[in-house]
Amino acid sequence: MNFSETLKLALLAIWAHKLRSFLTLIGMIIGVMAFMVVFSLLQGFNAYIDEKVAGIGSNSFTIMRFNFIDYSNTDKLAEAQRRNKELTFEDIDYLRSRMQVIEKMGAKAGGNQRDIKVGTVIMENVKIDGAEPVIGVIENINTRDGRYFTDAENNNSVRVAFIGADVADKLFPRGDAVGQEIDISGIPYRVIGVQVAKGTIFGMPQDSFVQLPIKTFGANFGGFRGSRFLYFIGTAKSDNLFKDAVEEARTLMRIRRKLTVDEQDTFAIFTPDAIAGLRDSLFGTTFIVILAVPAIALLVGAIVIMNIMLVSVTERTKEIGIRKSLGARQSDILKQFLYEAATLSAIGGLIGLILAELIGVIISSLFIPTKIPWYAALVSIGVSAVVGVLAGLFPAWKAARLDPIEALRAE
Amino acid sequence: MENQNGVSEPDQNGAATASKTLISMQNIWKTYQMGVEELHALRDVSFHVEKGEYLAIIGPSGSGKSTLMNLIGCLDSPSKGDYWINGNLVSEMTDDELARIRNKEIGFVFQTFNLLARATALHNVELPLIYAGMRAGERNEKAQAALASVELGDRVTHRPNELSGGQRQRVAIARALVNHPSILLADEPTGALDSKTSAEIMTLFEKLHSEGNTIIVVTHEHDVADRAHRIISIRDGQIEKDERIK
């Protein structure tokens, strides 16, 4: 018997036992669905981190005083504090005067939370940070109202503020924030711009901040010490020069700090890749465990199919006898049952995939965006068919080996 | 074992006599191992069947006639002895070769019809052609024709449970004949039918015989056996009598 004949036979048998087929399918459907939903969640989570946290695609890198590893324990941090000096404006001027493939570089500082007052309205614990005007270009900041800082405002430590959408909406509900004054720790600042709302990342609001020109920030919040450390953000002249730009920054910093070849960096450079790498090292094991659970569901689905196929072989012993008496070879019977199992679980896989897609849409609209890559869809259908073949192998082999006389005698 | 030279007929070359002799059984033994005891279901059975014969094999239950039928139908292989069918030495074939012989040379008709319950009459009749590897279009045509020849041309889409016992047996006969086998092998073909329907089926057998088909009927009913032209009586695993009655 050829492929299409056998496939037709399998579909007929599945259709003939609709209820049983459906019950069998459920195992596979749940298995594939659970696997794909979890997989798409992880994919979505990764993509989310890439896009929002690591800023992949933004092609900027960050120079900081400490690396991730320096925070792993107090001894390490103490050692790093001795080794790594704070970054200074002299450092960034040095970099800017020598850079070739780095396009732009700007300084930022943050780490403060203060209450903000307008008249009698108080907004508590708003993040305050400082930035050089060039950061507006580097971070591609979009303004809803007004504008970003100018160099003159920064150089003269003018008390102006660029604020997040939440701050603007809370303190100036009438939408006339620009030009008004806000009070931070008793000092008034004039609002010059409002940023376009960015929403939240992992539930953390991104629009509740006040940004000041960095020199204003330094002058009014006690310099760049402790948590208010300076850090630099840089971009490359083009996407394919990104690695070179990062390398240039590292080399210039090492020259400036007179590090010898065998000394390690006394600063840290973060790239989107490094952050994605950190994510993988933090969550990699968790991901495997999370994926293992639905994989077990898939396995249970396979066992259900094997079980049903065994029942099916017993139930259809007579049929097998009849087919054999009419000239079916062992391979014909084997194929018949294998195709049936494989088709059954491939259908289950397909339905599971469709359901996973639907659940994905719901999750995307409620929590984080999920995505099922096309290769994962193919793999899940392929895997379920292979699982079906494996689950069908033993029952099919049993069926093929039946003695036709015994089989014909069965009721 | 010492009966090896009991039948001295020189039939070393099965193919040479194949033009006339369809079935040649020579010194066939079938032995089952029951614990330490050996049970001989067939002891040194030899006979020939010519093309176009209408043969009945008769015997009480336990006589070995079912074993003989299974051997003739190539569902089983003898423990000892040579079995030729249409020039093929069956007794030494593998399972798959036996399947091919069943498909090409044998048309089974069973007491309980043995139709696939969920398949239409047409699909049931198509089954042997499917296993013969015939294309769908040709298959369909042949199965339609076979059903028409047993006067069921208007019942092709019916399932077995929508047909009477006699109609079911006629579907089974159409299925048995559709691949033009060398022999039609019927096992108690009227065992599940009332006397009127039995008579119809036996009349159909006579018609098929007159059209040149070779028919072997295995039965314990003398009425059924008496319609044949030759009767082989089996008792205790041996041929008791082999007589031509017409």
Q: What gyration radius of chain A follows from the Cα positions, in whole Å?
A: 32 Å
| Number of helical stretches of at least 4 residues of chain A | 14
Unreliable stretches covering 5 or more consecutive residues of chain A:
none
Mean pLDDT of chain A: 86
- Which chain pair shows the most residues in contact? A-B, 22 and 26 residues
What is the assigned CATH homologous superfamily of chain B?
Answer: P-loop containing nucleotide triphosphate hydrolases
Number of strands of chain A: 12
Reading side by side through the largest sheet of chain B, how are the strands ordered? 6-7-8-3-9-10
Derived from helix and strand composition plus strand pairing, the structural class of chain A reads alpha+beta
Q: What number of structural domains do the residues of chain A give?
A: 2
Order of helices and strands of chain A: HHEHHEEHEHEHEEEEEHEHEHHHHH
Look at the helices and sheets of chain B and give the structural class.
alpha/beta
Assign a percent range to the helix content of chain A: 55-70%
Radius of gyration of chain B: 18 Å
How would a crystallographer describe the biggest sheet of chain B? 6 strands, mixed
The H-and-E topology of chain B, N to C, reads as: EEEHEEHEHHHEHEHEE
Distance between the termini of chain B: 35 Å
CATH class of chain B: Alpha Beta
Strand content of chain B: 25-35%
Across the major sheet of chain A, the strand order is: 2-3-10-5-7-6
Shape of chain A: elongated
